[in-house]
Amino acid sequence: MMKGLFAIASLFSWTVSSDSNNLHKSEKIICQIPIEREKDSANTSSAQIPPDRFFFVNDICLPARLYMLSGVENNIFVEPLLKRWRPYDDVVRFSGSTIFQRRLARVASINAPKQGATVAVSLINTDHFDTVKTITSTIIVGQQGVGTDSIAVSIIGDSFTNGSFFKDALLAKGYVPKLQLIGLRDVAGYPGQSDEGRGGWTLANYFSVSNQRTQSYNGFWQPDGAYRYWGATEFWQLANAVRREPGRDWTFAEKYFAGRFTTQSLRFDQQTGYKLDPMINDIMYDNALGYYMRYNGKKWIRTAYEDFTWHFDYGKYLAMWKLKAPSILAEFLGLNDFRSEPVPQKIDFSTWNEKIKTVIASYLKAVPDGKFIIMIPSSTCGTLDNAAGDFTIKQNATMWELRQNIIKNFDGREKEHIYIVDAAIAIDNLNGFNVTADTTMTKPYSQYAGNEHIVVQTGNPHPYPNYPGMGLSLAAFIQTCR
C-alpha cells in the first residue's frame, strides 16, 4: 500500500514598474506535486518530510537602485544575488538599457555607467528554459573626484570595517575628495580618519555595555538623561599601553580589540584608566573594584548598572566625544549575526530589523537631514575548499536570506532618508579570497608527484582581495551627495 504526500511549491511571476519605490511585485501560484512514499517495515507511515524538501525553486534578489562609480569597472557577481549557486540547473542572464563591458556566467561588468540606465537580471531554469523571475534595477552614478566641500561619513560595522574594506575606494584612490571619516577608532595609515569597526561584533553587541579589558568600547550604548558612560578602566589602560608600545608582543585579543583607539585613549589616565577631566554624572566601570562608578563633581562614587535606563543614543555619542555629525551614516553588519544559523529558511529577522530601526531613528533624531545607509553584507563566504573547513555554501544560504530580508523591508524608502547600498555584489566567491600555499592543504594526496594542486581559500569569510571593489558602491553613493 502506498501513501500519497503532497509538496506545495511557490512560483513567482514578477512585474517591474518604472517607479523605484514600487519595483518588485509578486503574484504567487500554488501547485501541488504528488509524492508517493512507502510505509516502513513496521507498517506505519514514515515521518512526513516537510513539503519544501520535495520541491525547490531558486530565487534572486537585487535592490531597486545600484550605485556605481564613474570611470571604473563596476561588477555584479551572480553568486551573491542568487539563492543557490546551481549552474547546471539555474543560470542568471543580464539585460537592460545599460551597456555591459562583459556578460559572463558568473559576472557582468559595467565600465561606463549612465545615470538612469537599467540592469535587468533574469533567473532561468535550464530544464525547460523557463524564466523564473526578472528584476530590474536603476543605475545611480556617482562621479569620482568631484566635490570641493568636505563631507562627513561614518561607518558602523564588524571585521570588514575593522579591516578597512573602504580604504582603497574612499581614501587611497582619491575617488571621494575632502572626505572626513568619523568614529573613535583611527584608520591605520590615514591620520585624522576614523571608523566604528569592531571585529566579531553583531548588531546586538552595539546594544550592550562594554566593561571588560579586551572588549572594545561601545560609545553608542548610553544611560538616559544627563549621564554619560565612558567605558572600563582596564580597557583604557590597555588602549593607552597599545598606543605607547605598538610593537610589544600583545595577544591577538589585546591588539585587535584595544588597538586603533589611539587618539581617544589620550583622554584617559595611563595608570588608572579613569577619564582625565571628569564632569558631573560621568560613569565608568572600575574593573579592579568590580563596580560602576559615577563622578559627583568631587569624586567617583559607587553606583550600579541597574540604577540607569540604557538605550542606543547616537546624539549623546556625538556630543560627549565632540564629533562632527556625519551627513551619511553607513551600517555594515549582519555576517556575525546570521552566518551560523542552523536552518536558513527559518531565520527570524524581526529583532534584528527592530534594532536597525532604532539605530535609524536615533541617528536621524541627531542628524535630521542625514542619510542612513544599510549596506548589504557578504552573501558569499567562499567555496567549500577553504582552510578552516567552513560549510560555506550553507553560510551563503543564510546570508542570502538576510539579503532578501533587507531588500524586502528597507528598499524604496529614500523619502525616509533610508538607502540600500549593495556592497555584496562586488564579491567574487571563487577568486575573491586569499588562497593558501600550504601543500598539506593543496596537494591532491601525499604521494602525488604531478603539478596540479587544489585551490584552497583562506581567511574566509573575508574576501580581502575584493575589498577595493566592495568599497566602490559606497564611494559612488557618497559622490551622489556632492
Describe the protein's topology.
Elements: E1 2-15, E2 25-38, E3 65-69, E4 74-77, H1 78-81, E5 90-95, E6 102-103, E7 107-110, E8 118-125, E9 130-142, E10 151-157, H2 159-162, H3 167-172, E11 179-182, E12 185-186, E13 194-197, E14 221-223, E15 228-232, H4 233-244, H5 252-258, E16 282-286, E17 291-295, E18 300-303, E19 310-312, H6 314-321, E20 328-332, H7 335-338, H8 350-366, E21 371-375, H9 392-410, E22 418-421, E23 434-435, H10 439-442, E24 457-458, H11 467-470, H12 472-480
Parallel strand pairs: 3-9, 10-11, 10-13, 10-20, 15-16, 20-21, 21-22
Antiparallel strand pairs: 1-2, 4-7, 5-8, 6-7, 8-9, 12-13, 14-19, 16-17, 17-18, 23-24
Question: What do you see in this structure?
Answer:
- With 482 residues, the chain is of the alpha/beta class.
- The chain has a domain at 1-57.
- Helix content is 20%, strand content 27%.
- It is built from 12 helices and 24 strands.
- Strands 10, 11, 12, 13, 20, 21 and 22 form a 7-stranded mixed beta sheet that branches. Strands 3-9-8-5 form a 4-stranded mixed beta sheet. A 4-stranded mixed beta sheet has the order 15-16-17-18.
- Strand 21 (371-375), helix 9 and strand 22 (418-421) form a beta-alpha-beta unit.
- The model is unreliable at 1-46 (pLDDT under 50).
